[in-house]
Amino acid sequence: MNTAILIVICVVAGLLVGAGGYYFIARIVGAGIVKKAAEEAEVVKKNKIVEAKEKFIALKLEHDNAVREQDKRIQQQEQRLQQREQQLNQRQGEIQRSLNEANQKAQAAEQRQQALDYRQQEIEKMHHEAEKQLEQLSGMSAEEAKKQLVEALKDEAKTAAMSYINEIMDNARLEANKEAKKIIIQTIQRVASETAAESTVSVFHIENDDVKARIIGREGRNIRALEAATGVEIVVDDTPGAITLSAFDPVRREIARLSLHQLVQDGRIHPARIEEVVAKVTKQVEEEIIETGKRTTIDLGIHGLHPELIRLVGKMKYRSSYGQNLLQHSRETANLCAAMAGELGLSVKAAKRAGLLHDIGKVSDEDVELPHAELGMKLCEKYGEKPDICNAVGAHHDECEMKTLIAPIVQACDAISGARPGARREIVESYVKRLNDLENLAMSFPGVVKTYALQAGRELRVIVGADKISDKDTELLSFDLAKRIQDEMTYPGQVKVTVIREVRAVNVAK
User: Fold this and answer.
1) What is the pTM for the complete model shown?
2) DSSP strand E in 274-393: where?
3) Largest alpha-carbon pair distance within the chain?
């Protein structure tokens, strides 16, 4: 027990002695570190003071340089202001001198104007005195002399103006004809098609004449039922192998022809069967009309037409105009319009559309007492066509005023398609009447002795009396006559007017 206490005491004493030694050593080491840190702080302090002084000196130098630059700029601005002030003073002096000179010139001009006014008054006095003396010598007043002079100058000017107008018109017509012929020839060459002719009669061919009796039926009941169902007159005569279908409506003729074809092939021909077949064929023809209209618009590249307009276009296939198939004529006109519009730099699509629809009024289902051009325009307006297309359709026969450049193109292309040899057949009476009207129109002018319409009405020769019309008046007569023909008559192509004046001196030697 004592030994343990002794050990503990020894350990505690050793710890105390070690702690005291450690504290002593730490005091010595810490004092050295503090001294060293104080020395280093003093060195750092001195370095910072030196750096601050150097930085202050640099900033002071920079500030001095900036002040000097600012002073230099201020001095330069002051110099520029002084120069500007000198220039302004100089300019002010020049302006003042200019004002003085202008005032002097104005005063001089005023003096000259006063002198001129005075001289003008003197001249007017002298002019009035001279007029009075001339009136006394000639026995005519100044107004009367002026009227005579004006009349003489008017006649001379009228003759000169007429010659000048004729010269200008000839030159303009020559150039215009060259360009127009070039465009028209190119258009016709690019769009060439065969002509077509149809009539109001269709012929239905049969293999043997025994079929005729079956078509007529007992006491003619079959043929009466067929005529009642189709609205077509069926002529069964002695012509071998043929039955004639007569009607002005080509759609009805086509329905009757197809119905007869099906009835003959089927062999069952009686009134009930006839009505059934006619109804079926009518539906087929109507579908074919719509299909024809769609195919035509697709071939021409025309889109967006109203379905009713497409149906009317297809219906043109069964309509003829002066013997020319209307659909073929409309397609041809559309292609001609497209070619001509392309040459003139206009809208090809619009021209082609107007060309196709220009005769749409001829196949209208409405029984309206209107020209086909006006009716076609109303149909186009009804089914949403643009105003330029409607105007071109309505104006292609001068039924209304042309408001777009497409309208005269449609009119010209319609005439080109219809005026080609063989394209159309005209009634002889209307042809002769047009020639007579042309000659009578020329005979209505004073001084005309004889008139001759030549070359199918494309040339008009007028013979005038030499004692009634002078050579100068013949030019005026030809101009007025051509103007009246253009305004009052409808004709294909052009009409050349030639006025002939001949003087014959006849004496007899006895």
Assistant:
1) 0.46
2) 320-321, 324-325
3) 211
Q: What does the block give as tokens for 320?
A: 């003829």
Quick one: how far is CA 403 from the chain centroid? 10
C-alpha span between 364 and 316 (Å, rounded)? 10
| Both tokens assigned to 368 | 């309206």
Domain chopping of the chain, boundaries: 196-300, 327-425, 428-501
Strands (E), 269-418: 320-321, 324-325
DSSP letter string, 326-353: HHHHHHHHHHHHHHHHHHHTS-HHHHHH
CATH class of 327-425: mainly alpha
Domain 196-300: which topology?
Answer: Ribosomal Protein S8; Chain: A, domain 1 (3.30.1370)
Residue pLDDT tens, the chain, 510 long: 567 777 778 777 777 777 776 667 766 766 777 778 878 888 888 888 888 888 888 888 888 888 888 888 899 988 989 998 888 888 888 888 888 888 888 888 888 888 888 888 888 888 788 777 776 666 666 677 677 767 777 777 777 677 667 777 677 666 766 666 666 655 655 554 444 334 455 676 777 767 777 777 787 888 888 877 887 777 777 677 777 787 666 777 888 888 888 888 877 888 888 888 888 988 988 888 889 899 988 988 888 888 899 998 888 887 776 667 788 888 888 988 988 888 888 888 998 999 988 888 888 877 566 788 888 898 898 888 888 999 989 888 877 888 888 888 888 888 887 765 444 544 445 666 777 788 888 888 988 988 877 666 777 888 898 888 888 888 888 888 888 888 888 766 678 888 888 776 777 777
Nearest Cα to Cα of residue 260 among 318, 216, 218, 200: 216
User: Distance (Å, rounded) from C-alpha 152 to C-alpha 89?
Assistant: 69
Please name which of 359, 360, 354 lies closest in space to residue 341, comparing C-alpha atoms: 354
Residue 271: count of CB within 10 angstroms of its CB:
15
The CATH superfamily assigned to 428-501 is Cation efflux protein, cytoplasmic domain (3.30.70.1350)
Mention every residue, 6+ apart, whose C-beta is less than 8 A from residue 417.
324, 329, 332, 333, 336, 423
CA–CA gap between residue 303 and residue 62 (Å, rounded): 83
Token readout for 279 is 């109804």
How many residues are there in the chain?
510
**Residue-wise burial string across 394-414, b where 16 or more C-beta atoms lie within 10 A, e elsewhere:** bbbbebbebebbbbebbbbbb
Report residue 127 as tokens: 């002019």
Tell me if 439 sits within 8 A of 497, measured CB to CB: no
How far apart, in whole angstroms, are the C-alpha atoms of residue 317 and residue 179? 35
CA atoms within 13 A on the CB side of 490: 8
DSSP H or E stretch at residue 12: helix 2-138
Q: How far apart are CA 46 and CA 31, in angstroms?
A: 23
Q: Which residues contact 44 (CB under 8 A, 6 or more apart)?
A: none
